[in-house]
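Practice problem: DinB-like domain-containing protein
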Amino acid sequence: TIAENIQHLILATKPLVKLFSNPEIMATNWGKSNRSSRKYKEVVALYLKHIGIPGFTTKHYTPSNMEFTKSELIGNFNNTNKSLLDKTSLLSEEDLDNYQIPHPLIGLMTCKEFLFFTHYHTVHHLKTIRKTLENN
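Answer key — structure tokens:
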């Protein structure tokens, strides 16, 4: 449903907000990257290559509580994304290339790569929502 897609995006983005709030947590838990960040198209291709792996589940990002009004859900989505933008703006370009965090499917990604993925992932779900609206 539309609500499930929006809630999924919120659940997938909230951990980034928390991690981007404290880069030292990223450095302590996963070290710093020893390579250059991949380009947007490379990140998308890597994700698409891995998306069909059998047994992979996104249970942590699957909505369970759907008791939100439409305005609450949209507000949560907007607030979560604004928080991510705010936290990202506090990081330097060097930070985005150096700090890394694990993606549940791809493995360690730099913060910049994770932002590329988040953009692709969000647009993908927004296209799904648009198609649903057009078909109703």
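Discussion: The chain has a mean pLDDT of 89. Students who identified this feature from the tokens alone can consider the problem solved.
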